[in-house]
Amino acid sequence: xxxxxxxxxxxxxxxxxxxxxxxxxxSVLRSDRAIEVNIAIMRAFVQLRKMIASHDKLARKLxxxxxxxxxxxxxxxxxxxxxxxxxxxxxxxxxxxxF
Length: 99
What we know:
This protein is mainly α and about 100 residues long. It is about 65% helix and about 0% strand. The chain starts with 18 loop residues before the first helix and ends in a 12-residue tail after the last helix.
């Protein structure tokens, strides 16, 4: 929510920080513990960026594979039908009736 024009600041404390916000916070906080936490948070942002990048690569690879395999469903179905016919036991010839 935004604040009214007569009030300055936020109504609620923020629940998250951006990467830039964490970097700005590091210039203010100088304790050893604050530096350690800041480094851990920055590493988490780096890992998040890596995961997003790998997800994009995976999505592109899947799209390429899907385009490559279009139309193969019918061909695979024909192959399965042929295999079923080869595996099925042969039909016994009918005995002739009569003399």
